[in-house]
Design goal:
The complex is a heterotrimer. By secondary structure, chain A is mainly alpha-helical. Chain A is 92% helix and 0% strand. In chain A, helix 1 crosses helix 2. Chain A is rod-shaped, with a radius of gyration of 62 Å. By secondary structure, chain B is mainly α. In chain B, strand 1 and strand 2 form a beta hairpin. Chain C is an all-alpha fold. The chains are: A mainly alpha, B mainly alpha, C mainly alpha. Chains in contact: A-B, A-C, B-C. The interface between A and B is large, with 31 and 45 residues.
Amino acid sequence: MLLKFGPTFIWTFVNLMLLYFLLKKLLFGRLTLYMDNRTKSIKESIDNAEKAKADAAELKKKYEDQLRSAKDEASKIIDEARSKANKEYDSIIADAKKDAEGVLVKAREEIERERDQMLSDIKGQVASLALAAASKVVEANMDTASNRALVDKFIDEAGAA
Amino acid sequence: MSDLNTELNHAMLPHEMFSIPVPFTDYKIPVTDTVVVTWIIMAVIILFAYIFTKKLSMVPQGKQNFAEVVVELVNNLVKDAVGHHWRLFAPYLGTVLLFLIVSNIVSIFNIIPNGEQLHKLTHMEIFEHFPNFALRPPTKDINVTACLAIMSILLVVIGGIRVKRLSGWLKHFLHPIPVMLPFNILDYVIKPLSLCLRLFGNILAAFIIMELIYMAFPPVVPAAFSIYFDLFDGLLQAYIFVFLTSLYVGEVVE
Amino acid sequence: MNGLVAIAAAIAVFTGVGAGIGIGIATSKAAEGVSRQPEAAGQIRGITLLGAVLAEATAIYGLFIAILLYLKLG
C-alpha cells in the first residue's frame, strides 16, 4: 500500500539522527566554528592595523612637532647669535672710533702744547734778545724789573699783531 | 492497461528488499528499498562531507571553499528566518536540506537504464543478470516525509521550549488573544501534515510523471524532462521544506 | 463503479487549476513589486514563495485525494 506506515518510519528517524550527528560533527559545527574564528581573527587584525595606524600617525605628529620646535630653536639661536655679533661689531667699531678720536685729540693737544711751549720759549728768547739789543742800544740799566715788564708787553703786542 | 498499472504500482510502492531478524524473537525488521536508498544517500553525503573537510586551514582553498559556501548558505538561510538563535537550528536544518536535495534529485540517475530496462530494450542475455535496482527518491515514500515533518515539528517544540523556557512557550499558545488557543494547538497538527503531504505529493507526482515518460518514450526524451521534474522540482521542494521549517521555528523563537 | 471512481480522481486532480491561478497571480504581483522596488527583492521573494507554497498545498491535497481514489481502484 502506498500510505502504509511501517518500520520505514523508524528507520528514517534513526537514519536522520545518525546523519544529523555525523554532519554536525563533520561539517556544520566544525566549519561554523572555523568561520567564526576566522571572522574574529580578521576583525582583530583589522583592529590592530587601525591601532598601529593611529599610533604611527600620533608618532608622526609628535616627530613633526619636535622637528618644528627644533627648527624654531635653531633659527632663534641663529638670530640671537647674529644680533649678538652685530652688537659686538658695533661696540668694537665704536671703541675703535673712540680710541682713534682719543689718539687724535691727544695728538692735537700735544701739538698744541708743543707749539705753546715753543711759542713761550721763542717769546722768552725774543724778549731776552730784545732786552739785550735794547740795553746795547740804550746802554742804560734796562735790566730792571720794570723795564723787563715793558719789553714783555711790547712783545706780547707784537706777537698779537 | 493493466500491464501499465502494475508497472506503475511497482515503481510507486516501496518493496521489501531484505529483513533483519531481531534476536530472541520471531520478529524480523523489514528493510525496504526506500531505506536502502537512504543509506546510499547518507553514505554519499558523509563521504563528501569527509572529503571536503579533511584538511581545514584558516585560509580556505579548493574544496574547503565549496564546503564553506554550503555551510554559509545554510547559516544565512536559518539566520534570516530564525534570527538570533540560529546556531541551535542551523546544523539540523542543514542536514535536512542536504538530505532532501540529494534524495529529491536522486532519480535523475534513472536516466541510466537498469538491468531490466536494458534487457527489455536490447533483448540481450547478459542484462538479465544485472541487478534490477532503481534509485527512486526516498521522499516518495510517505513514511520518510511523515518522519521528516514530525521531526520538524519536534524541532519547533524543542527549540521553542529551549529558547523561551516552558512557561514562555506555553504562553505563546494564548498569543495574540486567548481565544486563539484551539487554533494555535491545531497549528501543531496542520503544519507537519501540510509539510509531509507537500513534499510527498510533489515528489510522488513528479516521479509518476517521469515514470510515465520513461514508459512512453525510452531512452533519450526523458533526459530533457528529467531536468525539470527531477532536478528543478526536487531542489525547489527541498528548499521549501527547509524554508518553511525555519519559518515555523522563527515564529515560535522570535 | 470503477469508472466513476476514476472520474472522481480526475475531478480531484482538477484542484490544480486553482493552485495554478493562485501561484500565477502571486508571481505576477511579485514581479510588479520587484520592478517597482528592486531593493525589496529579497523580502518579496520570501513572501512570494510562502504564498505560492500555500496555494500549492490545495493542489497537493487534490492530488492526494486522487491518489487515494486511484489506490481504491486497485
